[in-house]
Amino acid sequence: xxxxxxxxxxxxxSLVGCYDDKEGCLDPNAVNFDVSAxxxxxxxxxxxxxxxxxKENDTTFLSLNKVFLDDAQQPYKLLGVRFYLSHLEVxxxxxxxxxxxxxxxxxxxxxxxxxxxxKVSDNVLLxxxxxxxxxxxxxxxxxxYQGIRLDIGLDAQQNAVIPDSLSGENVLGFKPDxxxxxxxxxxxxxxxxxxxxxSSMPQVDTFQVLSVQGGVELAYNPLLVVPQGAxxxxxxxxxxSQWLHNIKWGANxxxxxxxxxxxxxxxxxxxx
Length: 272
Fold this sequence. Notes:
mainly beta, eight-stranded antiparallel sheet, four-stranded mixed sheet
């Protein structure tokens, strides 16, 4: 090898030695996927959110100031509606379910109301009449989805959580608008209703539902395709005409509570 060849070889080797691997995300399911990267780093995944729309019926959005007529043709106003959703799963066309959240250890009331630590699902949201959007985390599973499964209310372990042991930021934590009540339980649905609306002293009643509707299934029609690297916004409509079907606010309170629990599963639908 002559002198010129040695010089060329040394230059090539020096250039190779100075080359640094390009860092970037190599996961095609991430929003910042970089096909030119050499070293996997810093992946950011699509956001999974829930949007809830409140409707008077299939087509009209709910007005908070409107006077409605119940099934006995008596006027009323809805002053507040809240309920828990839990165990929300997205189901693909192969019946595979993706849990939108995991579980963590929490303090709960155990046997004999003795506090103990237990694994509790973090898959829970408090849906409020005054709120539309809820952050669920990230979504790493592109594909074709046929619907979702959820519970309206909390499971037994979630219902046994000690709210004072959690931060106020936690859905089940104790705060001024908490759904936790003595003795040691959470309300699953809360309805605040004003009747005698034409009176100078209208009556305001609070209806607290403790029943849970489990295994509610909502279907997409047509199927929903979630592309790689795309944000996924779940959209649920709450239809008050379905939820308050056959409700007479002047009837027996236990009868009203049972109907609110029974009607809940038919009041939710998926929007595309």
